[in-house]
Amino acid sequence: NMYLNFAEIGSNIKNLMEDFQRRKPKEQQKVESIADMKAFVENYPQFKKMSGTVSKHVTVVGELSRLASERNLLEVSEVEQELACQNDHSSAHQNVRRLLQNPKVTEFDATRLVMLYALHYERHSSNSLPGLMMDLKNKGVSEKYRKVAAAVVPVLEGWVK
Questions:
Q1: pLDDT in the model for residue 156
Q2: Secondary structure, 3-state, the chain
Q3: pLDDT tens per residue across span 112-141
Q4: Which residues lie closer than 8 Å to 29 by C-beta, 6 or more apart?
Q5: What is the pLDDT, as a whole number, of residue 86?
Q6: Cα separation of 161 and 62, whole Å?
Q7: How far apart are CA 115 and CA 131, in angstroms?
Q8: For the CA atoms of the chain, what is the radius of gyration?
Q9: Where would one find coiled-coil regions in this protein (predicted)?
Q10: Which residues of the chain have pLDDT under 70?
């Protein structure tokens, strides 16, 4: 799962949970005979191991989901993809400005969005790089991050302070 995208990980966890639930009733049947006891004892370590694996994966995916929601990462990544692969300047500019105004978007993510915009639209006749740099400042993005954004496109160096 390490290199899969978020949706694929979710699907794998769902399949793991379904497999775990299918096996669980068999493992928890009443133990009525010596053969039942023997089968239970033989299968218990496998069940315990699977239980731990399911628990670990559900915990990790839960934390990833919390972070994605907390930082608005699904929307941020969608705009990053648009900046990298599309040529609709108006839409890209609107989306970047909207996200810069969103309090959930961290200064790191905001800076990255502005840098991608700068790289893609540096030579566009109606680029709005100075305005986006001002938006970063208004958002409270530290000077350190604004310097990083300005370093991507030299013409922005005067917009850091």
A1: 61
A2: CCCCCHHHHHHHHHHHHHHHHHHHHHHCCCCCCHHHHHHHHHHHHHHHHHHHHHHHHHHHHHHHHHHHHHCCHHHHHHHHHHHHHCCCHHHHHHHHHHHHCCCCCCHHHHHHHHHHHHHHHCCCCCCCHHHHHHHHHHHCCCHHHHHHHHHHCHHHHHHCC
A3: 999 999 999 988 888 888 899 999 999 999
A4: 36
A5: 92
A6: 40
A7: 13
A8: 25
A9: none
A10: 20-21, 23-33, 35-38, 40-42, 44, 154-161
- For 158, list phi and psi in degrees, rounded to 5: -75, -10
Kindly tell me the burial class for residue 109, based on how many C-beta atoms sit within 10 Å of its own C-beta (0-12, 13-18, 19 or more): buried
The two tokens of residue 21 are: 């639930």
What is the pLDDT, as a whole number, of residue 81? Answer: 95
Please report, in angstroms and rounded to a whole number, the separation of the first and last CA atoms in the chain.
43
- Determine the pLDDT at residue 31: 56
